[in-house]
Amino acid sequence: MPTTVSGTDGVDKIKSSTIESTDFSTTAQLPLANTVYSMVRLHTGNGYGSTNTAIRRYTTVVTNQGSDITYADSATLGATFTINTNGIYAISCCDSFNTSTQYGISLNSTQLTTGITSITAADRLINVNCTGESIRSYAGWTGFLAAGDVIRGHGNPTPNSANPGLTSITITRIA
Amino acid sequence: MAGNLTIDQIQLGNNADPTRNFVLRTNADGTMTIARGNVGATTQDIMVVNAAGVLTLVPQSMTRLNTANGYGSTNTVIRRFTNVVTDQGTDITYADSATLGATFTINTNGVYAINYNDQFNAASDLGLSLNSTQLTTAITSVSVANILASSSSIATGRAGSCSFVGYLPSGSVVRPHTSAATTGGSPNLCQFTITRVA
Questions:
Q1: Alpha-carbon span B70 to B65, nearest angstrom
Q2: CB spacing of A144 vs B62 below 8 angstroms
Q3: What is the pLDDT of residues B118-133, one digit of tens each?
Q4: Measured CA distances, B5 to B11, B26, B34 (Å)
Q5: Which residues of chain A fall short of a pLDDT of 50?
Q6: In 3-state terms, chain A is what percent helix, strand and coil (to 5)?
Q7: From A88, which residue of chain B is nearest by alpha-carbon distance?
Q8: How many CB atoms lie within 10 A of CB B185?
Q9: Which ipTM was obtained for this model?
């Protein structure tokens, strides 16, 4: 099978190859042109895991397509988004609670009963502030994630607002 | 050797803009490189075959930092950071200076995504400036053309966040730009990520 190369700005990058020896540990592996782009989109807050008490859960799956992200929901562990392919990912969260609090997005955290503001800084991709009851706040992050990384919606944790439908999360591989 | 051509490097393309040309070259250490630019003056390695025959693409460029470390002593509204979590690739040069604060210099034309969040000891503002020369001026008063994004932290210790996704040409300088408010009680709630996405 021939090696096929294409890329951005005329820069060739490997899409499909027969090269057997490669090091892609810090590089994106671009999807084939006809690949289904990977995206998981969920909405409606469903509290937290019973064991991982700071990890958000969600009620409704709107979209779960592609093979680069594995979404799992667990009553004990909360929601996890496991990255299967090196690449650039965009993450968008919106949340609201029954009081003023902070929430965010964690990466490979092991502090799953600890509020987002108190976990190890290197495991926190972003944290934002919700200013009051049912006041929505947006947290977004875009960057490189490696295969095996685990993303979580990470709260403080604070109970849902009266309108949990205002909660949503979307993670998409964009490159 | 009749019928054969032996050459150390070859340039593909002859555009007046060197960023549109590419060079395939062998290196003295037994590696081979495809790079952007002209022969003898490449500006970006794209892929390397190392001495063991392993093909390595240049890492996807991303710099991720955390924990506020005050400001530059001269550039008094430009944030500094304590920790580098990730600094990979060649498209972005991160530099930290006690006098100038943090700078992120773009080396390659492209689309970049930037996220910055911070908190202070009182309600204040934060943002991202581009090629600003007003480096002692609060982000809210910087020339509008030099502001990529701005936001507010509404109260002591409460994180504010801003982001930008867009095209940045080579030579652009991005800075985390605030109003010089003193860092709040949790400096590790300050995070910055810049990634080339296309």
A1: 14
A2: yes
A3: 999 999 999 999 999 9
A4: 15, 14, 19
A5: 1-21
A6: 5, 50, 45
A7: B197
A8: 10
A9: 0.76
Of A86, A129, A140, the CB nearest to B115: A140
Neighbours of A21 (CB within 10 A): 11
- Both tokens assigned to B140: 């809210």
The pLDDT tens digits of the residues spanning A73-90 come to 999 999 999 999 999 999
Three-state SS letters, A54-110: CEEEEEEEEEEECCCEEEEEECCCEEEEEECCCEEEEEEEEECECCCEEEEEEECCC
**Rounded Cα distance, A25 and A141, in Å:** 21
Residue A161 CA to residue A147 CA, distance in Å, equals 34
pLDDT by residue, tens only, chain B of 198 residues:
578 888 889 999 999 988 889 999 998 888 898 988 899 988 777 888 888 787 777 778 999 999 999 999 999 999 999 999 999 988 999 999 999 999 999 998 999 999 999 999 999 999 999 999 999 999 999 999 999 999 999 888 888 999 999 999 999 999 999 999 999 999 999 999 999 998
- Kindly give, in sequence order, each residue whose CB lies less than 8 Å from that of residue A20, ignoring residues fewer than 6 positions away: none
Residues of B in contact with A13 (CB under 8 A): 47, 57
Chain B, residues 35-94, CB within 8 A of chain A, namely: 36, 46-47, 52-60, 62, 64, 66-67, 83, 85-86, 88-89
- Establish if B154 touches chain A: CB-CB under 8 angstroms: yes
